[in-house]
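no rush on this but wanted to send it before i forget. what follows is a protein written twice so to speak, once as letters and once as structure tokens for the fold. mainly i need to know what kind of three dimensional shape the backbone takes. thanks a lot i owe you, the record is right below.
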Amino acid sequence: MKKTLIILSLVFAFVFVSNKAIAQLDSTIMLCRSHMNLPFLSDGQSYTALLNGDEVAEFYATFYGGSTYRIVGYSGTAEGNIIFSVYDQEKNLLFTNNDYENIPYWDFEFDYSMDCIIEAKLDAKYLTSGIAVLLIGFQQ
């Protein structure tokens, strides 16, 4: 009986934590979507990563020359919790929102097509762990 009670407690705790994480992810995605409005259209993907401490998530994207894009990034429910940076394939920094008080989005255009690396990390002043969410959209 005691063993069954322990197992049920663990299952309940797992379900509770899972539901809380899913709810946090959903609300963070909704915040990102609030900045992905016309004339921008999302590419349909959510770039997400669970981060702890100084971990950095890496995402890869191809941006086509002559198109205007928007990257939106959030962690949690407040602006400024996430730092995202865009690099070219040689790891040359093209943009970081950290230079602009961690603004939640950035609009940009390339003259030619380019494969990029997007890094996301938590701003340690505000969060020590959380879900990083990025959306990428293009102008219609």
User: Anything to note?
Assistant: The beta strands are 40-42, 47-52, 57-63, 68-75, 82-88, 93-96, 105-109, 114-122, 129-139.
